[in-house]
Amino acid sequence: MKILVIYTYPNHTSLCYAFLEKVIEGGNENPNIKALKVLDLYDESFNPLLVFNEHKRRRDMHLDPSLNKYREQITWADKIVFIYPIWWGRPPAMLMGYIDQLFASNFAYRDKKGLLPEGLLKGKSVVCVSTMKGPANYPFFWLNNAHKILMKRALFNFVGIKKVKFFEFGNMESPKGKQIKKLEKVYCYFKNVKR
Q1: With 60 as the cut, is the pLDDT of residue 194 above it?
Q2: Cα–Cα–Cα angle for 4, 10, 11, rounded to 5 degrees
Q3: How far apart are the C-alpha atoms of 123 and 133, rounded to whole Å?
Q4: Most buried one in 60, 61, 173, 179, CB count within 10 A?
Q5: Residue 134 in this model has a pLDDT that exceeds 60
Q6: Could you give the CA distance from residue 124 to residue 80 in angstroms, rounded to a whole number?
Q7: DSSP letters for 23-38
Q8: What is the pLDDT of residues 39-75, one digit of tens each?
Q9: What are the strands, taking DSSP E only, across 56-98?
Q10: Which one, of 126, 123, 128, 119, lies nearest residue 147 by Cα?
């Protein structure tokens, strides 16, 4: 199994970074994981802005040479891991800009006759590790589970990825947030995951 970890947080002394370290630690101890690569969108200075004009058209994003490296990473990976905070009930703009550009038509999906497109990323799986200040049940009760619906139904299922696991951790700024226990949970998952 080959894993691509997409880390989206601007601070390397944060809890999100501690989750990244646990993913790497667990992954390095797992004999089922043959290779693990990390893409740090902030360190990479990834530009999340979409630009469309007479020279750059939306329907040609899958051909944009500036995104070749990122498309190759997604193609290479069997499992894609996203690590990010939940801000305002959704992932950060940096990550959404990456998704807008990389999960493009004719790379991640292909339009066909009928209601839904053909997902071109079939066979891959996804893990989302997210943190938030609010209580763990806040997105479910107050936002109608918008974060998970956005990520699983509107994005991953649309491009053919059916296997999606969430680690959605709340109360992360509280001293009673059980951060060490949650870090251990992520470490154990990656140490033992088979596919």
Answers
A1: yes
A2: 100
A3: 33
A4: 61
A5: no
A6: 8
A7: HHHHHHT-TT--EEEE
A8: 999 999 999 998 888 887 777 888 899 999 999 999 9
A9: 79-85
A10: 128
Q: Give the Cα separation of 102 and 113 in Å (integer).
A: 23
* 52/136 Cα distance (integer angstroms): 38
Which band of pLDDT confidence, cut at 50, 70 and 90, is reported for residue 145? low
Burial class (CB in 10 A: 0-12, 13-18, 19+), 192: exposed
Q: Which residues contact 157 (CB under 8 A, 6 or more apart)?
A: 119, 164
| CA-wise closest residue to 147 among 99, 91, 102, 97 | 91
Q: Judging by beta carbons within 10 Å of its beta carbon (0-12, 13-18, 19+), is residue 31 exposed, middle or buried?
A: exposed
In the block, tokens 């939306």 appear at 58
Output the six-digit token pair for 168: 């959605």
Cα–Cα distance for residue pair 180/62, rounded to 1 Å: 41
DSSP codes joined into one string, 127-152: EEEEE-SS-TTHHHHHSTTHHHIIII
pLDDT score of 23 more than 90: yes
Calculate mean pLDDT across residues 13-40.
97
Q: Are 195 and 165 in contact (CB under 8 A)?
A: no
Q: CA–CA separation, 191 vs 172, rounded Å?
A: 23
CA–CA distance, 123 with 186 (Å, rounded to integer): 22
